[in-house]
Description:
23 strands
Amino acid sequence: MERPLLCDRMERKMEENTARDVETGSEAGGEDALVGNVNKLMVSPPGYSGAPRKGHLLFDACFESGNLGRVDYISEFEFDLFIRPDTCNPRFRVWFNFTVENVRETQRVIFNVVNFSKTKSLYRDGMSPVVKSTSRPKWQRLPAKNVYYYRCPDHRRNYVMSFAFCFDREDDVYQFAYCYPYTYSRLQHYLAGLDRRNLPYLQREQLGLSVQQRRLDLLTITNMDHQSPKEKKLVFLTARVHPGESPASFICQGVIDFLVSQHPVAQILRDHVIFKIVPMLNPDGVYLGNYRCSLMGFDLNRHWQDPSPWAHPTLHAVKQLIVQMNQDPRVSLEFYIDVHAHSTMLNGFMYGNVFEDEERVQRQAVFPRLLCQNAPDFSFSNTSFNKDVVKAGTGRRFLGGLLDDSSYCYTLEVSFYSYMTAGSTAPVPYTEETYTKLGRNVARTFLDYYKLNNHIKDNRPTHIQSEDIISPTGDRNNKGNGVSRDAAADKEKDKSQGVRH
Length: 501
């Protein structure tokens, strides 16, 4: 279905009832009664009482990370879909994930997701939902020309995302989602696979349990036979504090995949650095299909200052561990990175903190500058350093104030949609693979950083040549212009060591 047809249809809808186009101020956005997901809901024409026919669509979201609260039949070709709000918090309605079956071959439909809580969205800039089906199990994005995002007077002036789709196989079950899902079960399956490899430099432990008794996993990756822990730097990484930000899990898996691989860079890092990774900080929210909150409706990334052991048990456990490590003179905790996804910006980028000491400000910029040279999708120009009052309860802000001035705390963000590379004119949509690759590039950047810091001395040829980058020790190095890499040779090395690109 071509976009002009869809656009005309939506524009006519927007022009109707303009006299009613007033702001209602409703926080619930018409979902006051939505408390659960649709469960094998057959949507037939009004008044129809016979047996369901092919083409009477069957919607379902009663599965892990599913979200669809209501379906309204508009016509044979059009359906209004309502996102179920986060549990115990009606403010957040963004993530959706549902299946459709009992379709008719060549059946064309328009789905209107009618109650987004966000106003700005990458849907305005070409982003589209992802889809897969029984016979085509790999997620792919819908064509952008079939997606339209607008403010609609028919739905309390909420923002609506409409997309056209043509079902082509009657026996397939189709699944649609806001972005590539990465579930709690998928993480558990991945971690169980790592366990089975019995890697001597990987330790997995249960740091705690969520409110609904799901595992809070902690991975420690380091070579225990090389150097004493006191001589090693410690890097702490967390992901999925916001459950709907699934790209964070692909990045986190990329970091882990690289660090446990036999790549020469990974081996050197394991000898000199201890990596501690909490891959899913909000397992209940992920399982339930929430966008931002935990089971009890808390945005956990606003509660770092005083997390409750019963209301925020996963956050409490992680904070307790970091505070203990910070107080231990044998531990040199240098990095905290919290991985997120961003709904309005392109590329990967970072948020850092603001300090009065100019030298510390410059040292904090070193890691993102190096990452920018390693990852073509990472943008240093989008990276910013701030102390916004509303971010005071975040991990980056709280730990930035807690840890000493040799530590660096960042939020790593990645676009839900796409990235622009140098010299490109069109955005490149992210895939599961390119999210994972960004994670690998984050991991390998620690070698660049610690070579620059003289913590790692290696007789291999260095690929760090920096100009006007202040080193972590405050020294300037004026050799060359950034970090150069022989990409072809590096790719071959990755291939020979079993690291996927």
